Structure prediction request, 406 residues.
Amino acid sequence: MNDGIVTEKTDGTIVTPRGFKVAGLHSGVKRKRNDLGVIYCERPANAAAVYTLNKIVAAPITLTKKSITAHEKVQAVIINSGNANACTGKQGYEDAETMQRLTAETFNVAQEHVAVASTGVIGEAMPMDKISSHIDKLTLNTDEAAAEAFGESILTTDTFTKSVCFETTIDGNKISIAGAAKGSGMIEPNMGTMLAFITTDAVIDSPVLQALLNEVVDRTFNSITVDGDTSTNDMVLVMASELAEHEPLTTAHPDWKNFVYAFEKVCQVLAKQIARDGEGATKLIEVEVAGAVTEETARQVAKTIVGSSLVKTAVYGSDANWGRIIAAIGYSDVEINPDTIDLSIGSIPLLKDSRPCEFSEEAATEYLANEVINIYVNLHLGEEEAKAWGCDLTYDYVRINASYRS
Prediction:
């Protein structure tokens, strides 16, 4: 794939694709920051979604999954932060339905075409007096300020808003794919406390979009980890307004690869932004594993390395303790040859055929002081490879999570 066919639109936002508007405001669920947001499409958009694999599922996820499964359309998404509406019983589900109904009434859309998402503290009743009285105060717009207000409205312990936009060409016409996300802690996808919303003006049916999302999620959102915890509220939701002018996209379309590449770039950038913003994190860790028998086993080894608390703390301390990396490879539940492993950090070889290489500790320490750390592994067993992303583990992670509810 020629990267020139797919370009990042640096000033693009979630409303760059045709047909979308957003809003965000402070309703009082959180103390200061925006905590209520909405995405609106001028027509019912073809939709696809993936959800948490946690067996404890928050009420908004149950409701949204029911609606999308039945109708394959979403015209509006209402999201609150500060309260997860999880483990809240029958009342929690009724509260999610109330959010759905009020959003439908406010923006004149069918109730079954409204998705609901929540993120925040688990097990507390929804402050519906605050949410219900503010949904009709959401003022839709397409400008950068509205996109930023929306981006802030979905955050919890995040330190920055997360967004990206890519463009490509289908049948000679420019189309956009954009996204906004939140995620900082409890990130062990399949998925973690992570919400991602992706918009596009491409013409594509829901089943085709769903199949693509299922495939790409494994290589992106399901390849990040912060702390190994899986939330009750995760969701990646895609909406296609179909306002671009081209033939419907299928796997047989001559420009299908362009769309797939742009779509995966959006997901990958958002995933890396989430990993970089891990609670208390100071560094992004990218692990690339090559020479595996399958892509799945390569990803499993990569995620085991990046998820190791000992590897994460070594990176935080700028300590080239390769023993922690090789140990993680060994307990990854992947069949390996313990005598054929190459390992390096950045351009510094640490192991060759599982034997230690001479290297400069000073150079390694200097490299590990960077904000992005690359770890390379070659298992020398096959031709497949995969990447995973995570972050270092710091004192601040403990501080943030020790006082999350206070």
User: Anything to note?
Assistant: The two ends are 49 Å apart (CA to CA). The domain at 3-276 is CATH 3.60.70.12 (L-amino peptidase D-ALA esterase/amidase).
